[in-house]
Design a protein that fits this description.
Elements lengths: L1 H11 L2 H21 L4 E3 L3 E4 L2 E4 L3 E7 L1 H8 L8 E3 L7 E6 L8 E5 L3 H10 L1
Parallel strand pairs: 5-7
Antiparallel strand pairs: 1-2, 2-3, 4-6, 6-7
Length: 125
C-alpha cells in the first residue's frame, strides 16, 4: 500500500512531490504502528490497559481464549456492557471477569498474542 501510494503520486506529479511523499509516508508508518498497539501493564495493585485501569482486587476468573472462543465473544456472545481492548488482527486473548458490585462492566476482553502469560501473571501475583 505504501509503495502504491508513492507510485501514484509519482505518476500524477513530479519527482519532488514523489520524494516528499515518500519521506512523509516513511516517517508516518512508525507513528501509526505505535498508536495501534495496546500497552498492558500489571502492578501489584492494578491492571492497566492503555488508559483504562482497575484494581486487582476486583478481578475475578481469568480465562485464556483460543481463536474460536475469542471470535464468539467478539460477535455473537458479546455483552454490550463489556470493556473491549481488542485489535482486529489478533485472534487470541483473555477474558477477565469483574467482581466489583459498583461497576456494571461484566468483564474485560483483551486481545493478546501472549494470553497465557497475561493470565498467569494475573493469577500468580
Amino acid at each position: 500500500m505504501f509503495l502504491s501510494l508513492v507510485i501514484a503520486i509519482w505518476a500524477a506529479l513530479d519527482t519532488t512531490a514523489t520524494i516528499g511523499s515518500f519521506i512523509l509516508a516513511t516517517l508516518a508508518i512508525p507513528i501509526i504502528a505505535k498508536s495501534l498497539t495496546s500497552k498492558i501493564s500489571i502492578t501489584e495493585n492494578e491492571l492497566r490497559i492503555d488508559r483504562a485501569h482497575i484494581e486487582r482486587k476486583y478481578l475475578g476468573k481469568v480465562t485464556v481464549l483460543d481463536s474460536d472462543a475469542m471470535r464468539l465473544l467478539r460477535t455473537r456472545d458479546a455483552n454490550p456492557a463489556a470493556y473491549l481492548a481488542i485489535r482486529f488482527w489478533a485472534s487470541k486473548g483473555v477474558k477477565i471477569e469483574l467482581i466489583d458490585p459498583r461497576d456494571p462492566t461484566p468483564y474485560w476482553l483483551i486481545t493478546s498474542k501472549r494470553g497465557d502469560e497475561l493470565a498467569a501473571s494475573l493469577i500468580n501475583n
